Each structure stands twice: as C-alpha cells, then as structure tokens.
Amino acid sequence: MSGLVRRTFDSPEETRPFEQGKGRLDLVNLDGGPVGRAVFEPGWRWSEHVKPIAQTDSCQAAHAGYCLAGRMVVAMDDGEQQEFGPGDFMVAPPGHDAWVVGDEACVMLDWQGFADYAKP
C-alpha cells in the first residue's frame, strides 16, 4: 500500500486549452490514471471547440464525471440527450456532442475520459 497522495488543481501537471479561449482542461496524474477538471466557458460546444483538436465527428471519450458548477447538455449520436448541473454524476459513453447551457461556466471533474481529451 502506498502512502497518502495529494494533488491540487491549483498546480496541475498539465493544462490543455480549448479552441477560441472557451475553457481548459487541467489534469493531475494518479497511479490509477489522470483526473481532470474542465472549465467550459459560456458558449462552449464540443463540436466547435474540441472537434478541431480531436479530429473526430463526435467525442470518442467515455466520461465518468461530476458537475461542480454550471450546466451542460450531452447529446448522444443516436439522439438521446440529458442536461447535467451541480451535484449531478454523469456517465457518457463515446459518441456524443456537448454544450454549455446558460451564462455560467460549467466545471466538471472526470475520472475516466480526459487522458487524451483535447490533446492534439
């Protein structure tokens, strides 16, 4: 068993900006993989601000995340969609678009899908 581990998003190991200044992904690395905190600014949409980086038709990352602030809609390629807000836990399989709802930044923690997210 390893000892205590402390990481902080105030000093992430990596930061990946989104297109057009619409937010960023901060990563801290743990033995089990990276944990990300993403800040999606009002007006952010995956298909506009990450698709040019990912170069896929829709987001192909699976996400297991928790919404800290703001609101976001996730729309699956098959048409299913759900809105998430503060306190909501989210599981989203690959094959989706997403966008911020309203004029508040959406802040999400993700334990699964950010290893290669928004990575050129």
TrEMBL record:
Gene3D superfamilies on file: Jelly Rolls
Q: Where is the Cupin type-2 domain?
A: 63-110
What residue spans carry the region label Disordered?
Answer: 1-21
Which Pfam families does the record cross-reference, listed alphabetically? Cupin_2
| Compositionally biased tracts (Basic and acidic residues) | 7-21
Entries under InterPro entries matching the protein: Cupin_2, RmlC-like_jellyroll, RmlC_Cupin_sf
What is this protein's record name? Cupin domain-containing protein
Originating species = Nocardia uniformis
Q: Taxonomic lineage per UniProt?
A: Bacteria, Bacillati, Actinomycetota, Actinomycetes, Mycobacteriales
